[in-house]
Write a structure and sequence with these properties.
The chain is α/β, with parallel strands linked by helices. Helices cover 26% and strands 32% of the residues. The chain is built from 5 helices and 16 strands. It has helices spanning 14-28, 65-72, 93-105, 164-175, 203-217, and strands at 2-3, 6-10, 32-33, 36-41, 58-62, 83-85, 109-114, 124-127, 134-137, 152-153, 158-159, 181-188, 190-193, 196-200, 222-229, 233-244. It has a 6-stranded mixed beta sheet with strand order 5-4-2-6-14-13. Strands 7, 8, 9, 12, 15 and 16 form a 6-stranded mixed beta sheet that branches. The radius of gyration is 18 Å and the shape is globular. 39% of the residues are buried. The model has no long low-confidence stretch (mean pLDDT 94).
Length: 245
């Protein structure tokens, strides 16, 4: 039995409804339990609504994702067993949350996300021209829907020899030669049960603590590499705290 705390599913549309349904099946089989299952969507009539009453301890939270995280990610309230279930189509939400928290922590500094200019060198490696986040993947093929990224890759029927977290860590080490850099703060989604991946909510506070430790050493400014990743795919951004304004 896997015992989880509060579980926040980002999005109540097709992906969130699927994840909630899979967790409900696992719960019925006695595989997993939780304190609360929160499905977060800005639409009160999203896809999860018709089946929500049949899921134990589940509720819909009608809110923008960023606003929800600002209220829910409170360090004194979140426990080690609280989890976030990300949507594959969501923006780099935890990087955005860290940016807001960093701006509040260092109010006399300029805080912003800057372009992740240097390539990681993965088969798919693209810098988004709008948000400056680098989107990367080891797959140069079409992955199976809801793949749990097992040790043997189902797309190539061969051992998976890569790990995105390791690639981002190496990329971060190279950034340290350019300017003071903390991290990487990795929000690594791992398969938990019945095809549903998630990561610990408290990783958010660990990322902020890593930036604070670097700022203590280099108070004029520092970067934090933030990665929302799985074993195969990822979104990598750079949060920058500049010198005092």
């Amino acid at each position: 039995m896997i015992a989880l705390g509060d579980v926040a599913i980002i999005g109540g549309g097709c992906y969130g409804a699927f994840y909630a349904g899979q967790l409900a099946k696992a719960h019925a089989k006695g595989t997993v339990t939780w304190r609360r299952l929160l499905v977060v969507d800005r639409a009160a009539d999203c896809a999860i609504v018709p089946v929500l009453d049949g899921i134990p301890a589940a509720e819909l939270v009608v809110a923008e994702w960023g606003a929800f995280l600002d209220g829910w990610l409170v360090e004194q309230e979140r426990r080690e067993d609280d989890q976030i279930v990300p949507s594959p189509l969501m923006p780099h939400l935890l990087a955005q949350w860290l940016t807001r928290r960093a701006a509040a922590t260092w109010p006399h500094h300029a805080v912003e996300m800057v372009n992740a200019e240097a390539p990681l060198g993965t088969p798919f490696d693209w810098l988004h021209p709008g948000d400056g986040v680098r989107y990367v993947s080891f797959a140069d093929w079409l992955c199976p829907t809801h793949c749990i990224e097992p040790a043997t890759c189902p797309a190539i029927a061969a051992p998976r020899s890569w790990e995105m977290g390791e690639a981002v860590a190496a990329w971060t080490e190279a950034r340290r030669a350019e300017r003071p850099t903390a991290g990487p703060a990795l929000f690594t989604c791992r398969h938990m049960v019945h095809g549903v991946g998630m990561y610990r909510a408290r990783l958010a506070f660990e990322g902020l603590a890593a930036l604070a430790a670097q700022m203590a050493m280099t108070p004029a400014g520092a970067d934090l590499v933030v990665g929302s990743v799985s074993a195969c795919h990822g979104a990598v951004g750079i949060l920058r705290v500049n010198g005092e304004r």
